[in-house]
Design brief:
The complex is a heterodimer of chains A (153) and B (260). In chain A, strands 7-1-4-3-2-6-5-8 form an 8-stranded mixed β-sheet, with no helix packed on it. By secondary structure, chain A is an alpha/beta fold. The longest helix of chain A has 28 residues. Chain A starts with a helix and ends with a helix. The N and C termini of chain B lie far apart (51 Å). The longest helix of chain B is centred in the middle third of the chain and has 39 residues. In chain B, helix 3 runs parallel beside helix 6 and helix 6 packs across helix 8. Helix content of chain B is 85%, strand content 0%. Classes of the chains: A alpha/beta (153), B mainly alpha (260). Chains A and B meet through helix 1 of A and helix 2, helix 6, helix 7 and helix 8 of B. Chain A: This is Outer membrane lipid asymmetry maintenance protein MlaD. Chain A: Keywords: Membrane, Transmembrane, Transmembrane helix.
Chain lengths: 153, 260
């Protein structure tokens, strides 16, 4: 009996370690529930080119994380990318109507994310509103093409 | 000429019937009703197969994470992208290395022992005597081992991944001086729980089933001599490793093939 209970204890610790490890992989490694505010409001923005933006990319303002991208779809009306993002609800009604959204890259090869910059308009953005002033992702090929065609002149 | 043809046909038939036996064997052992006694047998095997393999998994996971960070750093720093180290270590561990290397270690550590154990039981006619007294050896000997392997390999894989990521942290952040915040945040931005972590778990469930299946079947089906046991043990490790590597490619193609 004594030996059996040690055995059970060992197996119990083993399985607990497995569950804790999975929780670690979920929370710490894949970032589930980290930095995702529970109360959010939704904004959409249309971009001409999203580059490598993916769902779950962060949305920042002055470099501070304020939300994340939840959905990216092609808008069938204008044939550009419609990006849906969730922002912390404490900014609901605080961002001006002429806020601009730009797709930025962290570092040379890093993840792409959305950076918001507030404007000065008196009207504010609310849940479900659309950001009109957007700046598309920087595509390296386009840049090189411009550079080459400028050189040729 | 006819002799060769006969030998070829014999070998093919032997292989086919051995695959058939293995399939029947798996079905017969897996569908047995759980009982209180069966639970204790399973617990004992969990201890032998799972808990006793923790040490080797901890050590190899740590070293693999450390070497990944070291190699990755020297490559990434050339692009000025050493912040992406956490992403590289975590993705390669969670998607690929943790399931595969843990399964290979498991085949060597637990699979060969299972084959030798069951093989010796067969050689000393313990299995036959169990049948004589009306105990089904599939249910008493094989089923607990199969289930133990199936449950413990995913747990070992999780432990491997966690220790590997920690080892990468030790080398990358503590030693080579990557900023800790970007190590974790790059990792969190790029690792997706469902696509990466859960797919890795699915892989290790499949590997757990296949490796233990091969191990117990080789033990159950061997020629009951000392030479037969040694051959079956070798076959277990060889077949299980090949099966893991081959299945890994197939599963990866199914899971990540469309992610680009």
């Amino acid at each position: 009996m004594k030996r059996n209970s040690w055995l059970e204890l060992g197996v119990g610790i083993f399985m607990l370690a497995g569950i804790l490890g999975l929780v670690f992989l979920g929370l710490r490694v894949s970032g589930l529930g980290v930095g995702v505010p529970s109360n959010t409001f939704t904004l959409t923005a249309n971009f001409a080119n999203i580059g490598g933006l993916r769902p779950q990319a962060k949305v920042t303002m002055s470099g501070v994380r304020v939300g994340q991208v939840t959905d990216i779809q092609l808008d069938p009306k204008w044939f550009d990318a419609k990006v849906t993002m969730e922002l912390d609800s404490k900014y609901d009604g605080k961002l001006s109507d002429d806020t601009t959204a730009a797709i930025l890259t962290s570092g040379l090869l890093g993840e792409q994310y959305i950076g918001l910059t507030v404007g000065g308009a008196p009207d504010m953005l609310h849940d479900g509103d659309v950001i009109h002033d957007t700046q598309q992702a920087l595509v390296l090929e386009d840049l090189i093409q411009q550079f080459v065609s400028n050189m040729a002149k | 000429m006819t002799r060769y043809l006969t030998a070829l046909g014999r070998a093919t038939l032997d292989t086919l019937s051995s695959i058939g036996r293995a399939g029947l064997f798996l079905v017969q052992s897996i569908i047995c009703l759980p009982s209180r006694e069966g639970f204790h047998l399973w617990l004992r095997q969990m201890h032998f197969v799972g808990v006793m393999s923790v040490a080797i998994v901890l050590v190899s996971g740590l070293f693999i994470g450390m070497v990944l960070a070291l190699q990755g750093f020297t490559i990434l720093v050339g692009f000025g992208a050493d912040e992406a180290l956490g992403q590289m270590v975590a993705l390669s561990l969670v998607r690929e290395l943790a399931p595969v290397v843990a399964a290979l270690l498991f085949a060597g550590r637990a699979g060969s022992a299972l084959t030798a154990e069951i093989g010796l039981m067969k050689a000393t006619e313990q299995l036959t005597s169990m049948e004589m007294i009306g105990v089904d050896p599939l249910r008493r000997i094989v089923a607990p081992r199969l289930w133990a392997g199936f449950v413990s390999l995913p747990i070992l894989t999780v432990i491997f991944g966690v220790v590997g990521i920690w080892g990468g942290y030790l080398v990358g952040v503590e030693w080579l001086g990557v900023y800790a915040g970007s190590y974790w945040s790059n990792m969190q931005d790029s690792v997706n729980f469902v696509d990466d972590v859960l797919n890795g778990m699915v892989k290790s469930l499949v590997f757990g089933l296949v490796v233990t299946w091969i191990a117990v079947f080789q033990g159950y089906d061997l020629i009951p001599t000392s030479e037969g046991i040694s051959r079956a043990t070798t076959r277990t490790v060889v077949y299980a490793s090949l099966a893991v590597l081959g299945l890994d490619f197939v599963l990866t193609a199914l899971m990540f093939g469309d992610l680009g």
